[in-house]
Amino acid sequence: MTVRTSQQSQSTADASPSPNQSLSFVLHTADSYFNVSQIQARLEEADTSRSNAPPNLASLGQKLEAPDTPKPQEVLEQQQQYEKLGLTGNVISATAHLPWTIGITKDGKIELAPYPGKSVLHDSLSYLSNSSTWHHTVVGWTGEVLSTLSPEFAELKEKDAIRPRAYSNEGHQIGNVTIHDPEGSGFKEAFTQHFKEQDSVTRDMIITKDHRRELETLLQHVFKNTIIPVWLGEWSEDQDNTLILSDQARWYRYSEEELHKKLDRVMVEQKDESTRAKMFEDYRRLNEAAANAILKVYMPGDIVWVSDYQLMLLPAILRQKLPSAYIAYFHHASWCPREMIAELPEHEVILKGLLGASVIGLPSSGLRHYLEDYYCDEMGLASAGDGLINTGTGLVNLVNVPTGVDVASVQHAAYEDKNVGQYMSTIRDTYKDKKIIVARARLDRPRGVSRLIEGFESLLDHNPQLQQQAVLFLITTPDRDVTQDDKAIINQEVASQILQVNTKWSSATHQPILYLARPLPAPELYALLRLADVGIVTSDHEHTNTLSMEFVVSQKEKCSPLLVSERSSEYQETSFNKSTSSQSSGMLSNSAAALQDCLSMSEDDKRRKHKVLFDYFAKHDATTFTDEFLTKARISFVNHSPARDAPLLDMKALNSRYAEAERRLFMFDYDGTLTPIVDDPDHALPTKLLLNSLPKLANNPENAVWLISGRSRVFLEQHFGDLKNIGLSAEHGSFVRKPGSTEWQNLAASMDMGWKNEVDTVFGQLEAEAPGSWIERKEVAMVWHYRNAADHDSCLAKAVKAKALLEGERVKSWDVEVMLGKANLEVRPRFLNKGVVAANLMGEAFGNKENGFVLCAGDDTTDEDMFRAILSSKLKNEGIFSCLVAKNAKPSLAYYRTPEPTDLVDAVAQLSKL
């Protein structure tokens, strides 16, 4: 296919408005950011075929080391991860909207304009496609296909990109560049036939099968890798498979008007039941359409990365169809406390949808805790510690990864474009000796804008010296869910409020507020940002990062302070928040005081805080964000593999590998593994068959046999102490007695046990409130048991609340973890678990050898740590017999399953005879 480049293509410098013109800040010309030579070079490199040889797996996603990732000894080496997971090297990014808006002219030409916002997501997609070593497939809804005559598309054409994005190939520039019809394709004629001239209200379009095929072919050239558009509309009954696009905004209506507003803590307008049901049905259809598109290109071993709130049902839909898929979800938007999200009638099905992912990412620990609270307190799910949620069918890992954008492109746009410097000269001359305050906000949440204006007015009221000196440049952008009518109403309200302030404090030579009601051209914007004495961001959470970064990067010379709202700061981590000023969204006096503090800040404080902020954004750029999340996702996939039905223990293979191996290791849990779970733990005693079989195994010098239990060392000593050649580990690895020894090692001897007093107080109250429950006070751990309590369900709820209390207040100063188990709540040292013991034993038995034999059996979550340690070894799969003891299949890292403890004991007895 031959694609011609538009004759209107221009370089950045050529397309920028001339600085010699008077500054309008509102009326400006459009800009294009991709030059033809770059695009032609990209086209020569492009090859979207999935049949290409896979990239070097050892280097996938490893161009930059992600910060704050787990230590190497805690996870598999990268190459081992790929081998164990069987990754293809392909990432499928599922997004609700492609990074472009598609416009169609009356004569059949296609124009692409940047889809506004979503800088973090779009920069991440760009990095994966153009710079990383992953193969990348993007799946997303086309968005509203617009007539290029519509006001919306015209506004996007006028809106300059903030900075260049490397998305383009020859003939496919983002911005105001037309993608021409390939010669002889019939594409132009077909679209001309069906295209309807629309006004700003009517947007019906008819798309045939041939139209879709042609458009999809063109889109393939925009990314270096594969792009799969998702089409949504009503299918006609004719044989041409025609798609009718009408009321295209319906697909976003629920996510924007209901879900996003609730997550952002904005009042949601009440709707009748039928309207709400229709909106949610469209939301579900969007998610199902995305799933169907993914299924068409998915290959076992692909990583599916789902992004943001528009697709919160997608992970569960995919999990139903792809039980073993590697699914990750990242939430870029804001979040709210659990009691607020629970106000949505559909909250449970939406939040259950996320649990189809193995890992759920959020930008900060604060937002992660909101989600964790919902799952534990609202849905009653158990926390397994360290962000792990036990769904009852598997583990989901909640992680926080600071988001980032393309810092380098902002630096280039702010400092390399000569027009920026010329605009700066014009602004200096116009606003000489003024204090310039630049505020950026989105009009979808007008309350923040209103409070900002009132705060600025209060600043002037109480500081006469600033009344003729301070100038507020208010730059606003409406969000995508704001209609043209609502936009006009909001603009009128804001303009009226500004008029009040300007009338009050304007003079012949001074106007305190300049309202810039549409995005600025990049050179004008960066000129303002570089000259600002204070920067303000009053945006909802997901936009804070981008707007803050653009200000901080532009301030490397002046180092002016940044002011953000308190709620926006929830989106950031500590190092960011400590170096910004914050304003309360509800107290006007605080806003004025914060502005005054920023304007009076010393130069030393400015430079110190700016350095921290600049370093923060340089560290957390788009590349680091993407690499770090994929690293944490792969670790989660290794440690918490998707559910699969493990086969029953293969006795023939077990006996065969046992006979062949020169070195063998046996690791057994006790309760529920070697003996059934009973109501009274004191009655869970070993059978004679077990006591006869274990010594026989242990007496073989080729074998090492260990019991690794949560029981106390007193219990293990009482029942297994006479078996001298068996290793014993008590209290989940806190105490160890090696084979042949009678001495116990206390691995927690140096730990401060002051936390036990706090736990005893909480557990004592639980015991008093739940008749039949009791406290087990171990040497290192403490457990509240409620298996024999009268009201089991009530005890589970109490355990969930007690866990939150302990983690949030009572024991947060100690390095302990609080774990919900089978009818119990346990507190124990964090650094000791069965996996630590198992890893040491694997190292002693096999070192770096690939050949060997290990039989490891357990029945609950704590035993998964042992299975994980085995996966971390270099032992070949043929020698690994990790076995889950469970009547029914459930998610586990174990390779095999046996239904009952008696089955396992029989297997041990059989091996002891070989």
Automatic annotation (TrEMBL):
<feature type="region of interest" description="Disordered">
    <location>
        <begin position="45"/>
        <end position="69"/>
    </location>
</feature>
<dbReference type="InterPro" id="IPR023214">
    <property type="entry name" value="HAD_sf"/>
</dbReference>
<dbReference type="GO" id="GO:0005829">
    <property type="term" value="C:cytosol"/>
</dbReference>
<dbReference type="Pfam" id="PF00982">
    <property type="entry name" value="Glyco_transf_20"/>
</dbReference>
<comment type="similarity">
    <text>In the N-terminal section; belongs to the glycosyltransferase 20 family.</text>
</comment>
<protein>
    <submittedName>
        <fullName>Threalose-6-phosphate phosphatase</fullName>
    </submittedName>
</protein>
<dbReference type="GO" id="GO:0034605">
    <property type="term" value="P:cellular response to heat"/>
</dbReference>
<dbReference type="GO" id="GO:0003825">
    <property type="term" value="F:alpha,alpha-trehalose-phosphate synthase (UDP-forming) activity"/>
</dbReference>
<dbReference type="Pfam" id="PF02358">
    <property type="entry name" value="Trehalose_PPase"/>
</dbReference>
<dbReference type="GO" id="GO:0004805">
    <property type="term" value="F:trehalose-phosphatase activity"/>
</dbReference>
<dbReference type="GO" id="GO:0031505">
    <property type="term" value="P:fungal-type cell wall organization"/>
</dbReference>
<comment type="similarity">
    <text>In the C-terminal section; belongs to the trehalose phosphatase family.</text>
</comment>
<dbReference type="GO" id="GO:0005992">
    <property type="term" value="P:trehalose biosynthetic process"/>
</dbReference>
<dbReference type="InterPro" id="IPR003337">
    <property type="entry name" value="Trehalose_PPase"/>
</dbReference>
<feature type="compositionally biased region" description="Low complexity">
    <location>
        <begin position="1"/>
        <end position="19"/>
    </location>
</feature>
<dbReference type="InterPro" id="IPR036412">
    <property type="entry name" value="HAD-like_sf"/>
</dbReference>
<dbReference type="InterPro" id="IPR006379">
    <property type="entry name" value="HAD-SF_hydro_IIB"/>
</dbReference>
<feature type="region of interest" description="Disordered">
    <location>
        <begin position="1"/>
        <end position="22"/>
    </location>
</feature>
<dbReference type="InterPro" id="IPR001830">
    <property type="entry name" value="Glyco_trans_20"/>
</dbReference>
<dbReference type="GO" id="GO:0005946">
    <property type="term" value="C:alpha,alpha-trehalose-phosphate synthase complex (UDP-forming)"/>
</dbReference>
